[in-house]
Amino acid sequence: MYGGRITSEEKSTLRTYIWMVIAVALAAGGIYFFVLDQKQQKEMYGFDPNRPIPTDEVLRKRLKSEEYAVVRQNGSETPFQNEFWNNSRAGLYVDVITGEPLFTSLDKYDNGLGIPAFSKPIAKDSLVERADTSEGMQRTEVRAKRSDARLGYVFPDPKSPTGQCYSIYSAALHFIPKEQLKDKGYESYASLLDKK
């Protein structure tokens, strides 16, 4: 610089530095958001009993509208027109809110109602049963104990190996195929799918 004037060479150098700073800032921002996204994805995998239950606001954003309607607004779904009613693949059925394993494919059977039916849960203490007298009926509602997600109903069924039918809405569940247990963080539950 001579006498306060910037030469064209200095302008060019200054422009280069500014573009380098902008490029570094954009790259750093991209890396930050990538790492943040990976962390959030990892948090969603598997079941961690210490992971806090997401707030209602988070659930509204994270869940599909039909999932939210079933688990938080006591909605239902159409028989024979839901995701898992005729799913016959081996795997785990987990709580759509927490990822907690609730049912296995080994205990799934066709009760003829067009909604996933299970003869028993993985652990009875992971569920809560409540009397439901809505719509003029007397039923026993089933909810996930930890997340308070509305799952469906339980009732006696002579077709079930246990005499009980857990009729559970597809929208209340995510399905983890047996071959994806390790990748999705459920490797420790693989023994539940061994034939008895």
Which helices and strands, and how do they pair?
Elements: H1 8-44, H2 56-62, H3 65-73, E1 91-95, E2 101-104, E3 108-109, E4 117-118, E5 127-132, E6 139-144, E7 150-156, E8 164-168, E9 173-177
Antiparallel strand pairs: 1-2, 1-9, 3-4, 4-8, 5-6, 6-7, 7-8
Characterize the structure shown.
Strand 3 and strand 4 form a beta hairpin. The relative contact order is 0.15. It is elongated, with a radius of gyration of 26 Å. The strands form two sheets. A six-stranded antiparallel sheet has the order 3-4-8-7-6-5. Strands 2-1-9 form a three-stranded antiparallel sheet, with no helix packed on it. The model has no long low-confidence stretch (mean pLDDT 90). The protein has two domains: 44 residues; 134 residues, Peptide methionine sulfoxide reductase (Metal Binding Protein, Guanine Nucleotide Exchange Factor, Chain A), CATH 2.170.150.20. The protein is of the alpha+beta class and 196 residues long. Helix content is 27%, strand content 21%.
Key structural traits:
196 residues; alpha+beta; Metal Binding Protein, Guanine Nucleotide Exchange Factor, Chain A; 6-stranded antiparallel beta sheet; 3-stranded antiparallel beta sheet; elongated
